[in-house]
From TrEMBL:
Principal subcellular localisation of the protein: cytoplasm
Protein name per the record: NAD-dependent protein deacetylase
Membrane-spanning parts: none
The record's free-text note on cofactor binding: Binds 1 zinc ion per subunit.
Gene responsible for this protein: cobB
Record-listed E.C. numbers: 2.3.1.286
Domain called Deacetylase sirtuin-type: residue spans: 1-239
Active site: H121 (proton acceptor)
Taxonomic lineage from the root: Bacteria, Bacillati, Bacillota, Clostridia, Lachnospirales
Free-text function comment from the UniProt entry: NAD-dependent protein deacetylase which modulates the activities of several enzymes which are inactive in their acetylated form.
InterPro entries named in the record: DHS-like_NAD/FAD-binding_dom, NAD-dep_sirtuin_deacylases, Sirtuin, Sirtuin_cat_small_dom_sf, Sirtuin_class_U, Ssirtuin_cat_dom
Stated family: Belongs to the sirtuin family. Class U subfamily.
Keyword Signal listed: no
Cofactor: Zn(2+)
Binding locations of NAD(+): A24, T28, F35, R36, Q103, I105, D106, H121, T190, S191, N213
Amino acid sequence: MNDKMEQFVKWVEESDNIVFFGGAGVSTESGIPDFRSVDGLYHQKYDYPPETILSHSFYMRKPEEFFRFYKNKMLFPKAEPSTTHKKLAKLEADGKLKGIVTQNIDGLHQKAGSRHVIELHGSVLRNYCERCHQFYGLDAILQSEGVPKCSCGGRIKPDVVLYEEGLDEENIEEAVRLIREADILIVGGTSLGVYPAAGLIDYYRGHKLVLINKSETPYDNRADLLIHDALGEVFSKIG
């Protein structure tokens, strides 16, 4: 291992108050494309850009087009947890990791066994009727034709935060608490360009900010330990 990897492993071994803040890069190793990567959604060709389709106003205005895109490009029911997901779950089981704050909506952290997961942008696994508020699982979306409908006739909406929608206040408060109280804050697989989520890192008060990402981020100069490498490669070094 190089010096940075050894430092990372040492810090993890010595701490019992770790918090992980992650983005799309955590799940790319599970085969889920990153919105902003070369092969991601932002480089696909559609009648509208993904940011537009995944907005609240577009969802209300053109629900058929929204769900056509959503079902084709946002749902990966066969995806399995990556090395990073599994290692984080083990760190939590060992009493070292206090929580995960994720921008992802795929539910893979929970599938790997993690329990304390703050899903800033919701989850594709949860869906609800806009009329009667009955909850539905992922199959209700996957097996629907066109716009999914509840038995009451209402439209079923994915419990994900669309562009133009605000984040859940309780989630924000819990994420702030976790990050503020953390000994080590590991930030991984995120470009830190999406706000207000990225701004949560400003609440960290410690001196062990670990930033793991293949490309540069606006926070690189603030990291106490900066590792430009694949997440799975880094987390595989943890016992």
